[in-house]
Design brief:
single chain, mainly alpha, two-stranded antiparallel ribbon, 4 helices, 2 strands
């Protein structure tokens, strides 16, 4: 359970940073941010793996960026108050959120390894 909460918090923090630095990604409130992080995590865990394997093999991994953008755009369609202005912003937003959550997650994994 703690691992889930750490991942959710890092996703929410990454999404918050993304909304602050990208003019095309908007979140109305902290509650919306929390729900958007939860929905984005769900999409990444359940829906994205179904799409990733066949398409990634065919395109040698290049289409993975587009799939991340689609997942980001889908989360913005599902969560009211989470708005992405265009598909281009969805791709850039997904790259920013992925990089930041990976960075934050690396510290959490390092702490687990030490325990």
């Amino acid at each position: 359970m703690a691992r889930f909460l750490v991942h959710w918090f890092s996703m929410a923090l990454a999404l918050l940073v993304c909304t602050k630095i990208l003019p095309g990604v908007h979140v109305d409130s902290l509650e919306t941010l929390a729900v958007a992080a939860l929905v984005l995590g769900f999409i990444n865990a359940i829906i994205k793996p179904i799409l990733v394997l066949p398409i990634t093999i065919v395109t040698l991994g290049l289409f993975y960026v587009v799939i991340n953008g689609l997942a980001f755009a889908l989360a913005s369609e599902i969560v009211p108050g989470f708005v992405v202005d265009s598909f281009g912003w969805a791709i850039i937003g997904s790259l920013v959120v992925s990089a930041i959550s990976w960075f934050l997650g690396s510290f959490a994994r390092r702490q687990e390894w030490r325990s």
